[in-house]
Fold Drug resistance transporter, EmrB/QacA subfamily.
Amino acid sequence: MIAPVLNQTDERQLKRLLWLVAVGFFMQTLDATIVNTALPAMAEGLNESPLRMQSVLVAYSLTMALLIPLSGWLADRFGTRRMFLGAILVFVAGSLACGLAVTLNQLVAARVLQGAGGALLMPVGRLTVLRAYPRERFLGAMSFVAIPGLVGPLLGPTLGGWLVEIASWHWVFLVNVPVGALGWIAARRYLPDFRGVERNRLDVPGYGLLALGMALVLLSVDGLSALGLHGATSLVVLVTGLACLAAYWLRAGRQAHPLFPPSLFRVPALSIGLTGNLISRLGSSAVPFLIPLMLQLSLGYSPAQAGMMMLPMALAGMLIKRFATWSITRYGYRRVLVINTACVGGMIASFALISGTEPVWLLVLQFYLFGSCNSLQFTAMNTLTLRDLDTAQASSGNSLLSMVQMLAMSLGVALAAAVLGGFAETLQAEADPARMQQAFRYTFICMGGMTLASAWVFWQLSPHSVWVRRLEQDPGFD
């Protein structure tokens, strides 16, 4: 049951609400991509190796993965307005701290703070829209909110490279401060406040086990590169993390209100969708991290040029949406996902062929094709995961999927950095662009092969798996 603070919301207030949530979504998605092209400049400014900068990305996405499961409970307990205002303040404070950081450790800590704000912006905003709009108008409302989420990744890499060249890498973060300040003022004035009447008690120990398990698993991978952990130490950290996740699973089965009920995993589509999301995203999440690095470190591109080269990927992702719906409707989930996962893996591996001598149009085409396959993959995986959940399971399933997506992004970047760092060290490549390009080639082959192998997961789907209209229920879900 929901207790609205406002008795009646007029049309003007509803439009203002949509703009507020859309701006929050734009800030979150923009910041997830704007940093990628600025990493080499950050490394130079902080006197670090560009191959050790992945923690800047990992800290942000991991923090989001850890806090997304709490978003619904926090909003029900403290109100959507208070949580949205708090999320903006934390996000802006984190952005300011990032811009003022003078060491890598300070920057990573600030990214954690920024990720804490970003983790609540979209879930709480979407929840507010859900509660303010009648069901028959929710589709159009979320379609409007989803547009900035597509524009953010489109502008992020280019804007990041441009800011680095005309100013400094600090402005990649400082640009959020005035936008966030205006958003906070507007939200304080116009955002409605909703709370849950029935408040389930938060399973704090269970959440602690889940969060610690995810953090340790990621730390074991990231530690191979960024923290310089030895293999034995990383193995101990990994086993400890897996033990925490197993303990959470055992505990959840005995709780009345766990974060994620074990009954969710009795739904075959959700189990396969989550597993496929986690494994296949390892390779695709590494691409936005690896491509700008390769273009700048090996091929001599400027930050702005590297950012511009990422545009075809994002543009293709926007244009392929209609085809994604048609293809799943016609051919079913199993066939589309098995074939398209193989295509995504093949496209990632094909980046190993880049030498710097090919014409620009060929690179643009290559990036566009990857963006198309990757967007189709996300749409198919995400709709598959939630398609068979009933109303009571939808909220937990959606939060679980969002958490797995962010965790996969973190793991993908950390794993790619570890593989790249290993090849670079073996080839002694950091001072030699030609050897560095060879290290990138091997890394793309490894990440592509991993994605290709994940097609086996989707092979477990029923051959008769067909399209269910999940997109019509949640068009912003991608």
Q: What stands out?
A: The beta strands are 2-4, 194-196. Residues 1-9, 466-478 have pLDDT under 50 and may be disordered. The chain is about 75% helix and 0% strand.
